[in-house]
Specification:
The structure holds 2 protein chains of 2 kinds. In chain A, about 80% of the residues lie in helices and about 0% in strands. Chain A has 11 helices and no strands. The model of chain A has no long low-confidence stretch (mean pLDDT about 90). Chain A is mostly helical. Chain A has 2 domains: about 10-45 and about 230-270; about 55-210, MetI-like (MetI-like fold, Orthogonal Bundle), CATH 1.10.3720.10. Chain B has 2 domains: about 1-65, no CATH class; about 70-290, MetI-like fold. Chain B has a two-stranded antiparallel ribbon. In chain B, a hairpin with a 6-residue loop joins strand 1 and strand 2 (about 40). The chains are: A mainly alpha, B mainly alpha. The interface between A and B is large, with 81 and 82 residues.
Chain lengths: ~270, ~290
């Protein structure tokens, strides 16, 4: 079925136009001279200049990056352990509850997750700030990581681990030398997913942050509530470009790795 | 011993930061509001014992939810918005997924990437992009007046229509991906067989393609419906003052009215509403996994 009917061509064109035109408009108007965001008044990069002078935004960006790095790293470690335990752990007491707690946060409305964590932090008297946002983000992101990693663990050949154990590896060595290199692409994409989820999160961060820590989404949200502004367009353009470059690089790297792995597997089969 | 530690680390983390917070929400939803810090009563006190503490709890907040129009109207209106927008997302997403599955094979990874890319871009920014398009002097009105369809600007921003547009736009990838993966697996020869046996292309589509992509349609619909029900960002940026959604009510109850017990009760009821679609979704996923094996 390799022919493209006109219907398919039209629906693809319209579909992708719908997905991309809003963002293209946003990017174009970040270079607008005028403060009125809907009237074109000539090319200018002055909003980028003003953005770089705006200390509140820069501070918020720094807080956001700190939170994202810490929480995604912790989430990757915890999520990988959780995935390993779920797929390889066998039966243990409370396994159903455990897998329930892994999957539930994926479908939980953010307002509920945020509210419940806030009530916990207040209940135990923890001051809200960067630390509490990191705890909150780690918790929901580790579930995403563990889903990504366990889907890789399920598909890989278990006899490789068993061979390593037979040849005298300790379980820890087998994990480090055999399992980890094989699941590494899934662990990395889990980390990236956790990182972007944390960068993006408004609702949970609003509940769990205190006056001392404002993240970029919180800052953007309170600014756009007042209406559209060219500074926010400039900020959005920067964020869109970073994501685009990141996703394209990541996909090229994975493609390369998958191809290499395939070649190695084929070579191993021939040998 | 090592195995025990491995299991215990993520287990204890989730117990402490997922299950316990939940128990606290449930407990506060049964408490009374108080002018204090924290603003609810009773506080747990070991000295008085558990029995005395439980005796103070009651369902007053839930009774309050049924008595005040605002809440059940908000639940109903969230359900309505979620159902309608899921339907429109399916309507917009299915042809795109279908086109992708029928596209030449060497295009598919690129098309796939184009669907996933917006998903990695900030949700807030994607919603914000529509504020400039839908406002009275925005691009949509400028364009429609320029081609002469309308002479007066349409009021779209801050109405429910803007909320629908925003939801369809931001949740479209969640619909496209599962439908696409169902359609891609579909064996083209089945459709050819139906056409050979005298079906028109449309009948073949209706009788063969749609039923065989059912698991994808169901999965995509739940992936849109479930998060939309508790959505906060879209109604508060694109919706108007008459857009009632329960996520927004919960937010305002907590941050503006500072009524924690009522906010907690709202959360508990929202969760009960979500249990049914979540269970149905899980069963659909299990069926799909069994079908693949």
């Amino acid at each position: 079925m390799n022919r493209m009917s006109w219907f398919n061509a039209v629906s693809l064109t319209l579909g992708f136009a719908f997905l991309y035109i809003p963002m293209v408009i946003l990017v174009i108007f970040s270079f607008n001279e005028s403060k009125l965001v809907t009237v074109w008044a000539g090319f200018s990069t002055k909003w980028y200049g003003e953005l770089l002078q705006n200390e509140a935004f820069l501070n918020a960006a720094w807080v956001t990056i700190k939170v994202a790095v810490f929480s995604s790293t912790m989430a990757t470690v915890l999520g990988t352990i959780a995935a390993y335990v779920l797929v390889r752990g066998g039966r243990f007491m409370g396994r159903t509850l455990f897998s329930g707690m892994i999957y539930a946060p994926l479908v939980m409305p953010e307002v509920i997750t945020g509210l419940s964590l806030l009530l916990l932090f207040i209940g135990i008297g923890l001051d809200r700030g960067v630390f509490t946002i990191v705890l909150a983000h780690t918790t929901f992101a580790m579930c995403y990581v563990s889903v990504v990693v366990s889907s890789r663990l399920v598909t890989f050949d278990r006899s490789l681990e068993e061979a390593a154990l037979d040849l005298g590896c300790s379980p820890a060595e087998a994990f480090r030398l055999v399992t980890l290199p094989i699941i590494a692409p899934a662990v990395i994409s889990g980390w990236l997913l956790a990182f972007t989820l944390s960068l993006d999160d408004l609702v949970i961060a609003s509940f769990t942050s205190g006056p001392s820590a404002t993240t970029l989404p919180i800052k953007i949200f309170s600014a756009v509530r007042l209406g559209v502004s060219p500074e926010i367009n400039a900020l959005s353009t920067i964020m869109i470009s970073i994501v685009t470059v990141g996703v394209i690089t990541a996909s090229l790297v994975t493609k390369h790795q998958v191809a290499r792995q395939k070649r190695e597997e084929q070579a191993a089969e021939r040998a | 011993m090592r195995r025990f530690v491995l299991i215990a680390i993520p287990y204890v983390w989730l117990l402490a930061l997922f299950l316990v917070p939940f128990a606290i929400v449930l407990k506060i939803s049964l408490s009374d509001a108080a002018i204090a810090r924290p603003p609810y009563f009773p506080q747990f006190d070991w000295a008085e014992g558990i029995a005395a503490f439980i005796a103070e709890l009651d369902f007053e907040n839930f009774v309050w939810l049924t008595e005040d129009d605002l809440y059940w109207k908000a639940y109903l209106s969230s359900l309505k918005i979620a159902v309608i927008s899921t339907f429109f997302t399916l309507l917009a997403g299915y042809p795109i997924a279908y086109g992708m599955a029928r596209a030449p094979e060497e295009w598919r990874p690129t098309l796939m990437m184009l669907v996933i890319l917006p998903f990695w871009t900030s949700f807030l920014i994607r919603v914000y992009a529509w504020m400039g398009i839908l406002s009275n002097e925005g691009f949509l009105n400028q364009f429609l007046m320029w081609i002469g369809v309308i002479s007066e600007p349409l009021i779209i921003l801050n109405t429910n229509s803007a909320v629908y547009i925003g939801i369809v736009y931001t949740y479209l990838p969640f619909m496209i991906l599962p439908v696409y993966s169902a359609l891609e697996r579909l064996d083209g020869s089945l459709i050819e067989a139906a056409e050979d046996l005298g079906c028109s292309r449309l009948t073949a589509f209706w009788l063969v393609t749609i039923p065989l992509s059912r698991t994808g349609i169901i999965a995509g619909s739940f992936l849109v419906f479930i998060p939309v029900l508790g959505e906060f960002v879209i109604p508060s940026l694109l919706g108007g003052s008459d857009t009632l959604m329960i996520g927004k009510v919960l937010w305002e109850e907590f941050f503006s009215n500072r009524d924690w017990p009522v906010a907690s009760a709202v959360a508990v009821v929202l969760l009960l509403l979500l249990v049914i679609p979540i269970v149905l979704f899980q069963r659909n996923q299990q069926k799909q996994q069994e079908a693949e094996q």
